[in-house]
């Protein structure tokens, strides 16, 4: 029997209909019994999450993209080649390649990083040595340490080209310096706010778990209570529903209607007597009114004719005083109800009521038996339903308690660690920030020196030794040399920091950020999955579930769980049941067995077997004869039309009070005179009579007429039962009652069983529909994982986008500057030498003279190169400083007479003195050109003695 019920219930499940809207209707019953479907309230608790995935790179997005592309060039998709790491059951061990010292695949994969690291280490070691060599070289006068005061032939072109190249290099340096400062600031901001993002993530995760717990409790507890209340009401109304359907199908309710009519016969008799009394009163009152109106009419006609005024004639015509009567109503035409009342009295005194009552008792006994049978089985079905609800509630409590424990554990263990992290960040992160700020400041200092060197070198004038400006070309050269010195002093340290940052940033981005963004296909996530081994944890939980008291069984097949799949499923906003594959230790589909396990199906089947009916005899032959007598009684003679057609509410054609008021008004206007005064008095007296008739006769007649019409109409409805006549109604009653008796005795048992089966199936259907709701909600609605993935994304943004990307951007900006420092050193040293020269190109003759000058240690600015008049205008001095070759050519020519001030004051010969100075072969004769004296002449040796 249980199998049959389960099979029928399975077929009924195909009729389920889930209604949209604010409620969920979980079962669609058969329309025969019209069982009301349970309307479950939806869980709709709005929560506000704090985690945010919004991110603004603030202009650094292209740099971060380029940096990530550079890192991709150095790191392979699988960062760890096969054979170097073995992860098993929470342990990490070296692979076979490590034990065999087979490092070839690893070196082949990371040769680029190793090459970069080796080059950087070589540069770190060489740059101090190169700087020391350059310093020594310049100290000994080489490498531009000392140079001729005159430009060489192509120095102007060299200066322009080198200046342009240094401008390009310096302009590019601006980008690197800005990147270093900005990324260092962004990175510090990300570090300081990482715990805030973590707190938001913890808060949202706890809120998600608490909301999921509340949703589970709503579906498994509150919704079941709603179902259980409806099922109890359904059981409580079960017997009435069965009896009602039986009466409707067999038409047996007509017996009740007939019995109620018989019970109302005394009342019908009373109504008839009341109608008879009202009819008699109307006849008497109408006669009195008619007599009174005739007297009033006679007096009014006499007085109004004697009056003769226009107003009197108008009143007589308007109110038709000559036809003043009872409006032509003949109350004697109303039927006499005495015989009908006597017939009803005989029926009430007969055994008609008791005969019909016996049939009613038979039906009541049938109803009582059905009701008693149902009531005896209701407690058992309710107990089974309560047991099912308790089991479902236990499952709900188990799930909610676990989720709440996880939420509490997460909060208790997370916030204190985040507070500790805040302390460490506040205490130590500032040092990293200052270190980055220091490196950025050094880069900025070098940039400023280069910029000032270029500005002074390009815009300043040549150094002339006489009141030099603070920003001449010589100062520009010194700025450039200073920048070169700073580069050599800090290059190795900055490069070491950049190399370490490159390695750390590359490792972090590949091991953490890339893995978190693509967890499904990532090698590191696979290693982590093997290390954590969720399947081993699920095996323990599965064993606990098998030993637990809950009736929810585990699934037959164990589905493997992987971290990457969990994250991807969460990204797709799957439910927590599917994301974590909870069916491995709690299979929600086994809840379908609860009705069978807790006896609901068994008790419903027993209820269906116990509901039976016996044969009945509704009407005996004597009762039938009594009903036939009722059919042939005088009640058939009652005709409501004789009352409605002969009665009216307009007793008189005009309201008597209205006529009386008009008469009083006319009387007041009758002119004075002895005869006219009598007319006036008579009009007022008749007006008083009319008012008295309206109050004492007409108004009571209207009330009696109204009551009489209502009684006749009601009685007509009670007697005909919607048929053409009373006799036809009674005849139809007899036919329907006989048919009902035949139907109950012949088909009643089968019909009751069918209706009972519908009731049981509807009950079963309600339960299985709720179970379907639970399964569908668990697998598709409860604990949608989108909020948790939003937390996951916010953590990635807070760590990778706001910390790792600026960190990689920082070393990228520093490396960019370091690469530009190498050409800047060459350009700076070259330009500093060129900027130190004080005079333009003098021509080939003077240049050759200086090539053979014995006094190479003299000042760079010859005395002969000074201007002849220091008070020249500024315009002349500028022109002279730009091109002074004419002076040199003039002074170097043989025909030029030199100023005596510049003649050599030293004696041509003295004792013990060295031989006379010999001019170079290409120099002019001694008589024509003499070397200017040195700035300091100590005198002849004899003078010192």
Unreliable spans are 1-31, 852-930, 940-945
Given the structure, what is the number of helices? 29
Radius of gyration, taken over Cα atoms and rounded to an integer in Å: 61 Å
> What is the first-to-last residue Cα distance?
149 Å
Going by helix content, strand content and strand pairing, the class is: mainly alpha
Residues in helix, %: 55-70%
**What is the arithmetic mean of pLDDT?**
76
What's the β-strand tally?
4
Strand content: under 5%
**Overall geometry:** elongated
Q: Major sheet: order of its strands?
A: 1-2
Please give the largest β-sheet. Answer: 2 strands, antiparallel
Biased composition (Basic and acidic residues): 877-888
Pfam family, one: Prominin
Signal peptide: 1-29
Region (Disordered): 861-945
Question: What this model shows, in words?
Answer:
It is found in: Membrane. It is a multi-pass membrane protein. Residues 861-945 are annotated as: Disordered. With 945 residues, the protein is mainly alpha-helical. The protein contains 29 helices and four strands. It has helices spanning 2-12, 61-74, 96-99, 104-109, 111-139, 155-236, 238-250, 253-263, 265-307, 310-318, 338-349, 352-459, 473-517, 523-532, 534-547, 563-571, 576-579, 594-597, 600-610, 621-631, 641-646, 656-669, 674-720, 726-780, 786-836, 844-851, 874-882, 885-892, 941-944; strands at 23-25, 39-41, 85-88, 91-94. The strands form two sheets. The chain has a two-stranded antiparallel ribbon. A hairpin with a 2-residue loop joins strand 3 (85-88) and strand 4. Helix 1 (2-12) packs across helix 24 (726-780) and helix 12 (352-459) packs antiparallel against helix 19. It is elongated. Residues 1-31, 852-930 and 940-945 have low confidence and may be disordered.
């Amino acid at each position: 029997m249980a199998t049959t019920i389960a099979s029928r219930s399975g077929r009924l499940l195909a009729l389920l209909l889930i209604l949209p809207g604010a409620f969920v209707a979980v079962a669609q019953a058969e329309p025969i019994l019209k069982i009301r479907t349970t309307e479950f309230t939806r869980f709709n608790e709005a929560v506000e999450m704090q985690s945010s995935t919004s991110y603004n790179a603030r202009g650094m997005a292209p740099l971060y993209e380029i940096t990530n592309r550079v890192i991709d060039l150095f790191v392979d998709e699988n960062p760890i080649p096969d054979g170097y790491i073995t992860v098993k059951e929470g342990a990490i061990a070296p692979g076979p390649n490590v034990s065999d010292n087979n490092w070839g695949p690893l070196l082949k994969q990371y040769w680029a990083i190793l090459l970069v690291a080796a080059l950087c280490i070589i540069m770190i070691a060489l740059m101090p040595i190169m700087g020391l060599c350059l310093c020594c070289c310049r100290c000994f006068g080489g490498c531009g340490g000392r140079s001729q005061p005159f430009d060489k032939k192509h120095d102007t072109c060299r200066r322009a080209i080198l200046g342009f190249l240094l401008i390009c290099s310096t302009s590019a340096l601006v980008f690197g310096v800005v990147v270093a400062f900005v990324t260092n600031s962004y990175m510090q901001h990300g570090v300081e706010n990482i715990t805030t993002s973590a707190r938001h993530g913890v808060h949202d995760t706890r809120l998600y778990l608490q909301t999921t717990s509340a949703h589970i409790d709503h579906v498994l507890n509150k919704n079941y209570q709603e179902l259980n209340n409806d099922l109890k009401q359904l059981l409580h109304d079960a017997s009435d529903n069965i009896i009602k359907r039986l009466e409707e199908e067999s038409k047996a309710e007509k017996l009740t209607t007939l019995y109620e009519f018989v019970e109302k016969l005394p009342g019908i008799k009373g109504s008839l007597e009341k109608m008879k009394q009202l009819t008699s009163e109307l006849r008497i009152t109408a006669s009195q009114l008619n007599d009174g109106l005739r007297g009033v009419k006679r007096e009014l006609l006499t007085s109004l004719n004697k009056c003769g005024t226009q107003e009197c004639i108008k009143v007589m015509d308007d109110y038709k005083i000559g036809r003043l009567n009872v409006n032509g109503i003949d109350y004697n035409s109303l039927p006499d109800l005495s015989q009908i009342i006597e017939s009803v009295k005989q029926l009430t005194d007969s055994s008609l009521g008791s005969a019909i009552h016996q049939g009613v008792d038979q039906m009541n006994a049938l109803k009582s038996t059905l009701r008693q049978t149902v009531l005896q089985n209701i407690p058992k079905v309710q107990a089974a339903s309560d047991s099912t609800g308790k089991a479902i509630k236990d499952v709900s409590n188990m799930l909610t308690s676990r989720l709440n424990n996880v939420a509490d554990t997460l909060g208790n263990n997370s916030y204190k660690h985040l507070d500790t992290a805040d302390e460490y960040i506040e205490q130590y992160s500032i040092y990293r920030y200052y270190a980055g700020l220091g490196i950025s400041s050094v880069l900025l200092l070098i940039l400023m020196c280069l910029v000032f060197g270029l500005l002074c070198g390009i815009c300043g004038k040549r150094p002339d030794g006489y009141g030099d400006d603070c920003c001449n070309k010589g100062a520009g050269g010194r700025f450039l040399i200073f920048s070169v010195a700073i580069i050599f002093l800090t290059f190795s340290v900055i490069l070491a920091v950049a190399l370490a940052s490159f390695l750390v940033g590359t490792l972090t981005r590949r091991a953490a950020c890339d893995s978190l963004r693509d967890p499904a296909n990532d090698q590191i996530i696979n290693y982590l999955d093997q290390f954590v081994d969720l399947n081993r944890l699920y095996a323990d939980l599965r064993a606990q579930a098998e030993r637990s008291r809950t009736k929810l069984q585990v699934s037959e097949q164990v589905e493997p769980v992987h971290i990457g799949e969990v994250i991807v499923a969460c990204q797709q906003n799957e439910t927590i049941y599917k994301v974590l594959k909870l069916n491995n230790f709690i299979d929600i589909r086994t809840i379908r067995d609860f009705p069978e396990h807790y006896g609901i199906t068994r008790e419903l089947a027993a209820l269906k077997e116990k509901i039976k009916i016996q044969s009945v005899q509704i009407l005996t032959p004597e009762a039938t004869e009594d009903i036939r007598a009722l059919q042939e009684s005088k009640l058939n003679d009652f005709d409501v039309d004789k009352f409605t057609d002969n009665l009216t509410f307009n007793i008189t054609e005009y309201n008597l009070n209205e006529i009386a008021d008009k008469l009083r008004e006319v009387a007041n206007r009758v002119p004075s005179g002895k005869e006219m005064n009598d007319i006036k008095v008579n009009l007022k007296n008749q007006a008083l009579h009319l008012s008295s008739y309206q109050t004492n006769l007409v108004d009571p007649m209207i009330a009696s007429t109204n009551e009489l019409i209502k009684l006749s109409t009601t009685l007509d409805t009670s007697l005909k039962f919607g048929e053409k006549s009373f006799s036809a109604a009674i005849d139809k009653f007899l036919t329907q009652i006989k048919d009902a008796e035949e139907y109950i005795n012949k088909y009643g048992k089968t019909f009751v069983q069918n209706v009972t089966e519908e009731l049981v199936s509807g009950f079963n259907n309600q339960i299985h529909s709720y179970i379907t709701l639970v399964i569908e909600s668990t697998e598709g609605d409860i604990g949608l994982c989108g909020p948790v993935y939003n937390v996951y994304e916010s953590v990635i943004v807070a760590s990778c986008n706001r910390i790792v990307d600026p960190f990689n951007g920082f070393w990228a900006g520093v490396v960019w500057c370091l690469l530009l420092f190498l050409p800047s050193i060459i350009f700076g040293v070259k330009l500093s030498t060129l900027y130190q020269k004080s005079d333009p190109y003098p021509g080939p003759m003077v240049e050759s003279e200086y090539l053979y000058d014995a006094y190479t240690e003299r000042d760079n600015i010859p005395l002969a190169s000074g201007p002849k008049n220091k008070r020249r205008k500024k315009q002349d001095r500028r022109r002279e400083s730009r091109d002074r070759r004419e002076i040199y050519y003039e002074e170097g020519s043989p025909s030029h007479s030199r100023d005596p001030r510049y003649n050599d004051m030293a004696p041509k010969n003295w004792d013990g003195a060295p031989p006379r100075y010999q001019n170079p072969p290409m120099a002019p004769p001694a008589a024509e050109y003499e070397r200017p004296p040195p700035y300091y002449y100590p005198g002849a040796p004899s003078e010192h003695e």
